[in-house]
Design goal:
alpha/beta, Undecaprenyl pyrophosphate synthetase, 9 helices, about 40% helix, binds 3-methylbut-3-enyl trihydrogen diphosphate, binds magnesium ion
């Protein structure tokens, strides 16, 4: 079964000037606070304000999907007080923001292994998702206790249970619908703030052909001009998806129509 969206490895996705899906690793909160001689958690608190600003900014720019890495499956390794602060911050943010998100037409999704969270938090998440389920202006995904490897494995396990008879011959299109972000196209633009140039187990499968943008700006300082700089950098990229520049120059109309120029590529459902 082909997914709803074009897989970058199975077909050539349509590419626009504005990234349709932006995925961000929000990094640098701790260092932001430390530079101000404040406790690390003050940086997390400030980071929520940047989230708010980015949701607004993405709506204004016509971005359809914004995905934010809030807590990785490895972040449990942090000091217990910091983990518990982050959980409370998440609860408070959900309580305070759902109404505003809903009023602004935002659909909220939370992806990750929620079984590790306290029931109160899980209930808030499910409630927030249900309230905003029919909104279509922007899909805001929060990745919480998320890991790219976990995602691929849980999809694999679901697939194996659903289709044991096909074991040994699973294809990409069999697995993709079981990934936790199957409701979204692959990210066009990946941004990591805070200076590190790594993926830290974020969307491993989905980032296959995303354009990567790394900035030293710490997450609490990330603002609209910084977002615009990332989008401007994205616009300058030539997204070849394996083809040559010459092919792109020769076949702009073909690409615009989403028709496959390469005979070796299997067709898939178009966006
Ligand atoms: C990112 O900021 C937020 C989370 C991982 C929850 P950090 O807390 O990693 O900030 P730095 O990298 O230590 O500055
Ligand atoms: C990545 O940031 C995870 C989140 C932003 C939620 P980290 O600060 O945990 O990443 P590493 O440990 O520096 O790779
Ligand atoms: Mg960090």
């Amino acid at each position: 079964m082909a997914g709803k969206f074009t897989s970058s490895t199975q077909a050539i996705p349509n590419v626009g000037d504005v990234p349709r899906h932006i995925a961000i690793i929000m990094d640098g909160n701790g260092r932001w606070a430390k530079r101000r001689f404040m406790p690390r958690v003050a940086g997390h608190k400030r980071g929520v304000e940047t989230v708010r600003a980015m949701v607004k900014a993405c709506i204004a720019r016509g971005v359809d999907y914004l995905t934010l890495f809030a807590f990785s499956s490895e972040n449990w390794r942090r000091p217990a007080e910091e983990v518990s602060f982050l959980m409370n911050l998440f609860i408070n943010a959900l309580q305070g923001e759902i109404g505003k998100l809903h009023a602004n037409g935002v659909r909220l999704k939370v992806v990750g292994d929620l079984s590790a969270f306290e029931p109160r938090l899980v209930a808030l998440i499910r409630e927030g998702e249900a309230t905003t389920a029919n909104n279509s202006r922007l899909t805001l995904t929060i990745a919480a206790n998320y890991g790219g490897r976990w995602d691929i494995l849980q999809a694999m396990n679901q697939l194996a249970l659903a289709h044991p008879e096909k074991a040994g011959s699973y294809g990409e299109a069999d697995l993709a619908p079981h990934l936790v972000m199957a409701y979204a196209p692959e990210p066009d633009l990946f941004i990591r703030t805070g200076g590190e140039q790594r993926i830290s187990n974020f969307l491993l499968w989905q980032l296959a052909y995303s354009e990567l943008h790394f900035t030293d700006t710490l997450w609490p300082d990330f603002d609209e001009p910084a977002l615009d700089a990332a989008i401007a950098s994205y616009r300058r990229r030539e997204r070849r998806f394996g083809r040559t520049s010459e092919q792109l120059a020769e076949q702009p109309a073909v690409q615009a129509l989403g028709v496959l120029p390469a005979p070796t590529l299997a067709p898939s459902a178009s966006d």
